[in-house]
Each structure stands twice: as structure tokens, then as C-alpha cells.
Amino acid sequence: MTDLLKLSGVHTHIGRYHILQGIDLAVPQGQVTMLLGRNGAGKTTTLRTIMGLWPASSGEIALGSERIESRATPDIARLGVGYVPESMAVFSDLTVKENLVLAARDGPMDDKQLDWIFGFFPALRRFWLSRAGSLSGGQKQMLSIARAIIEPRKLLLIDEPTKGLAPAIVMALIECLKEIKRKGATILLVEQNFFAARELGDSVLVMDNGTIVHRGEMAALAADVPLQERLLGLSLEAHQ
Amino acid sequence: MTELAASDPLPKPKRDIAPILLPIALALLMIPLVGSASTWLTLTAASLAMGMMIFIMASGLTLVFGLMDVLNFGHGAFIAVGAYVATLVFAPFAASAQADSLLVNLAVLAPAALLSMAVSGALGLMVERVLILPVYGQHLKQILMTTGGLIVAEQTLYALWGPQIIPMPLPASLRGSFILGDVAIAKYRVLAMLIGLAVFIAIQLVLNRTKLGLLIRAGVENREMVEALGYRIRRLFLGVFMAGSALAGLGGVMWALYREQVHASMSDELTVLIFVVVIIGGLGSIGGCFIGAILVAMVANYGGFLVPKLALVSNILLMVAILMWRPRGLYAVTSR
Q1: Residue B49 carries which DSSP code?
Q2: How far is CA A14 from CA A53, A67, B336, in A?
Q3: Chain B residue with minimum CA distance to A175
């Protein structure tokens, strides 16, 4: 399987802090790669560095055959990278429709894609003309994900989509992400919820102190409780 | 997916009308204090006209503030430049400006305003590229650079036009007043109100009915996410900066006609008012800016009539009162 995204020796500094300390990772095409780790390990920084929001101080980032570590964020997005930040970052002052109109950068929204999104997130249809700021946390997360998939993307970078959501909403989001995966999307997914990670992940990367400390199959990590405890401090059972 | 479909419907978003009611309440409160109905109407009309002119000048600044977090203390330069450029049209066509025909007068006024907007907009392009671009994200340097730019602009105007005040009489058909019973409302104030209202409606249409407007509104709220969606917000900002500068130029022409004179430091008296309007309106909010401008003008006019000694501090007191009520301004758009 070919790698769609590849980071080699990536370092990122934010002010005087050295956050990413030589990241090497690969995200295979058509797979969901989980990025796990304790708080402060550098997961969000990794996604933001790929997206160009915090530029890499050194190292190489390749999307397919394109080097992107020196490119501006809009150019990276235009290469087909969708980003769902941890904060969701929906535009509160805009309606649900307006948020999606902006996300459909290349022209009018595709009706079929919109219907497909409404199939997962009926609430978005119901609140189509409501201000995004008036949505609940779960609905904002749905909008944030819908915004990333309203147009075909080569790669989705998703940061903790289940954070702070009610269990029912978490299950719905997992189902949606599974369906996106079935359609062949390539996803790099940061997740603290090990249950969601096990359900979605094909492969897994574990970060600690700005470096990758483990890489392998998600199923293998899910089956190895001592390894989970060593890498993440808690076992899968503790998350259920 | 039934869990999502079953979620309770949200209440319809409530329109926040309290800020809209504020100038209305203030105007009504002034009726018994002013005493005479005709004086009250004259003061109210003066407030609306002055408010519209301040709004035109402040609207660009609030978007620049909100969109890119740029502190442009040199905004006043565009006002003065706009007014001076208008004199280039008014001087050679003085006879037409003073002709007894509204159409002929407007045939001078309209090109003067358009030329002022074009020159101020072009100056905005230069200022953004030369002064602002190197200091994005650095507030202290922005203040130093733009204040320095304002001083350079003022001195350049003095060098080109001389230190004297240049008279800029109102066109003949805009002199005088409309008389309604005991009430006299200056014709020029009516024109100022109409132009201000037209600018407000035009900005609202662009912001709410076009993709460009959506981008500006989204950029004011979260410019990083706009970039992550693939839009080059720097270009957008440049466009907004130029449009804001052009509007300041238009405001400069209108203010010069209101005062019937032009001088290089004419923006000094306005800069504080404009910043007060931007702050109390909420950074980046055009609606807030519109209401804020009317409030500031009302306080200046009613306050000047009722308690002249308070005139110097009245707008600062208004700002303090508004910020105690709503610390992020009448309509908070950005989280800054």
C-alpha cells in the first residue's frame, strides 16, 4: 500500500518551545491511521504542522509526490487536505448552510454529497438556516466534519472529534467516520477515546514528548493491555 | 443515526435587539430634557447625519480591526487625503458647484467623491503593502508604523497644499434647510443620512448575500480556519483594507463639506470618535459600528446642547458605560 502522507524528521518550535522533536510517520492511502498519546504529547501540533498552521522548523512533509512543508495553509488545503480542528472552529455567526457554502470552495455544493451528509447528520438539515453558534456541541462537531467532507479530499486530518460529546453522539460520529473510511478516504485521526480508536483505526502511531514511540496495527495494540498501559498509561478496559 | 434525528429542535435564534433599541431609547429620553420638540428634532437629525458620516469612516476600520487584528492608527490619513483630493475637482468646477441646479451640483460632487475614494483606496493598497505587511501580529509596531504614517501623510498634505485651511463651500442646492412646521433640517444632513444608509445597506448586502461577504465574516471570527479551508485571507484583507480606506476617503469628503473646510489635521478630531465607535460597536461588527456611530453622534449633539461642559468627555463616558454593559462591544464578533 502506498503512503499518501509522509513526515520525515519533522521538528516544530512554537516560540522557544521545541514541540515536535523529529517526527517520522507515514499514513497509508485509504486507511485510518490513529495518532494516540497523552495530553501534551504533540498530537495536535503534528496535525497543525502538516496543515501549515505551525510551520515545521525542519524536516520533510510529503503529500503524495508533493513536498508541502514550506507551503502556506491555503495551498495545502487546495491540494485536497481537509482539517477538523479540536475546537471544531465552526463559524458561529454564519448559518449551517453558509458554513458549508464556504467549505465547498470549488463551486456550488454537490447535492448528492449533501444528501449523503444529511443521511448521517439529519440535524444539519433541520438547522440548515440556524446560526452555527446556536448548535449544541455534538451538532457543531457534525458541522465541522461535514465541512471537511463536503468536497472530495485526498486526506482528512481530524483532531479529537469525540471530545466532550455525549455517548450517543460519539457512536453516531464513529458510524459516520466508518462510512467515510468505507468510501476510501485516507484519515489521520487524533483520538483520546480508545474505544473510538479501536473501532476506526487500521494502524496506530503513539506519541510521547514530541516523538513517535510506537507504530503498528491498531488491532494488535487493542489486544495488548500491558502495551496500552505502558504507552498510554491506561488500558482499553479503563476507557469503557 | 436515529440519535441525531431525535435531538430536540433548537429554539429559533433570538435576534439581539437591545443594542438597536438603545439609540431609540436615548432619543426618546431626551424629549423631556431638551424641552422643545423642534429643537429635539433638529438635534436628532443632526445626530443621525453626523452618525452616518462617522459610520462611513469607521466601517472600514472595524473590519480591518476584526479581520486581521491590525491596529491602524493612521486611518485618519485616508480621511484627510479624501477631502484634499475632492478639492482638486471642486476648485476648477467652483462655478458648477455653486450653480442653482441640483443635477449640476451633483455632477461635481459625485466625481469628486469617486476620485477621493479611488485615491484613498490606492493609498490604502500602498499603506498595507509598505507599512502593515511587515508588522502583522505585532501590535506595538503597528501603532508606531501607522502613527508615523499619519504624521508623514499630514506633513505631505501641508507640503503640497500649504498650511492654510482650504474652504470647501457646500454646493448651492445643498445649502439651506427643509422646513417642516417649526422644524428646520439642513438639506446636506438629509443627503448625509441617505448616503450613510446606502453605504450601510450595500455593506450588509455584500456581507450577507455574497461569498466574499461570507469570507469576510468568517475571517473576522476565525481567520485560521478560513485559511484551512483553502482561502488566501491576506488577499481578502488587502481588498477589505482598500475598501475601508476608500470609505474613509468618502467620509473625508462628506465631513469636509459638513465643516465647509479642509485641513491636513482634520481627522484629529475624528480619530478618537472613530475608535470609540469601533470599540463600542464590537470589533468587526458592521451593525455594531452603525449603532455605535449613531450613539456617539447623539451623545455629542444632545450632550453638547444640554451639558456643554461634558462635551469633551461624553463619548468616553459612553464607551465606559457600554463596555460595562457589554465588555466586548454591542455585538461581539471576534473573541479578541
Answers
A1: H
A2: 11, 22, 21
A3: B1
B227 and A168 within 8 Å at the Cβ level: the answer is no
Chain A residues closer than 8 Å to B209 by CB: none
DSSP state of A184: T
Q: pLDDT, tens digit, for every residue of B299-317?
A: 999 999 999 888 778 999 9
CB contact under 8 A, B229 and A169: no
For B100, phi then psi, to 5°, come to -90, 35
Put simply, the answer to whether B221 touches A131 (Cβ < 8 Å) is no
- Number of neighbouring beta carbons within 10 Å of residue B22: 18
The predicted-structure confidence for B134-175, as pLDDT tens digits, reads as follows 998 788 999 999 999 999 999 999 999 999 999 999 999 999
How far, CA to CA in Å, does A73 sit from each of A26, A84, B234?
Answer: 20, 14, 12
Considering the entire predicted model, what is its pTM? Answer: 0.82
Chain A CB contacts of B231 under 8 Å are 74, 102, 105
Q: Identify from B4, B204, B220 which residue to disrupt to test chain A contact, counting A C-beta atoms within 10 A and taking the largest count.
A: B4
Question: Which residue of chain B is at minimal alpha-carbon distance from A135?
Answer: B10
What cell does A53 get? 498552521
Q: Answer yes or no: do B229 and A171 touch at CB < 8 A.
A: no
Which residues lie closer than 8 Å to B304 by C-beta, 6 or more apart?
A: B311, B314
Burial of A233 per CB tally in 10 Å (0-12, 13-18, 19+): exposed
Residue B186 C-alpha from the chain's centroid: 21
Q: Where are the extended beta strands (E) located within B216-278?
A: 261-262
**Residue B60 identity:** G
Residues B314, B303 contacting (CB under 8 angstroms): yes
Interface residue A139 vs chain B (CB under 8 A): yes
**What cell numbers appear for A152 in the block?**
472530495
DSSP for A160-210 reads: -TTTT--HHHHHHHHHHHHHHHHTT-EEEEE-S-HHHHHHH-SEEEEEETT
